[in-house]
Write a structure and sequence with these properties.
With 121 residues, the chain is an all-alpha fold. Helix content is 64%, strand content 0%. It is globular, with a radius of gyration of 14 Å.
Length: 121
């Protein structure tokens, strides 16, 4: 049984994030995953990363949350992790199916950023 029942539910999460209509306390980990999957499904990984970064900063600014909460390395790790997972999926799967599979797999997972990663670039 999936988290979402329809693609319109996914579109509502993405729309709420992009318009900043979703409250800051209402935008949870599963919502981050949902937006990332949607962006990756409809663009290149680089474009998805840029959209996610700019969207997160806009969201934080709109809700007057300090930008210190934002971590570009963490965003990149999640985009890469989700992209790699999606590449292993059947390309015929719908956005609904992919999103539910990603949430099932990563919904309770947290990613840690190694501080030395930034020094290696």
């Amino acid at each position: 049984m999936g988290h979402y029942k329809s693609e319109s539910e996914i579109e509502a999460v993405v729309g709420g994030f992009e318009s900043c209509n979703t409250g800051v306390d209402d935008f949870k980990h599963l919502d981050h995953l949902t937006v990332a999957v949607s962006y990756l499904r409809h663009s290149t990984p680089e474009q998805a990363f840029q959209r996610m970064c700019s969207g997160l900063l806009r969201f934080l600014d709109h809700h007057e949350v300090g930008r210190a909460k934002y971590d570009e390395q963490l965003t990149m790790k999640w985009i890469n992790l989700i992209q790699n997972t999606m590449e292993d999926m059947n390309p015929a799967l719908s956005l609904l199916e992919i999103t539910n599979l990603v949430i099932e797999r990563f919904g309770k997972m947290r990613v840690v950023v190694d501080p030395t990663d930034a020094k290696r670039k």
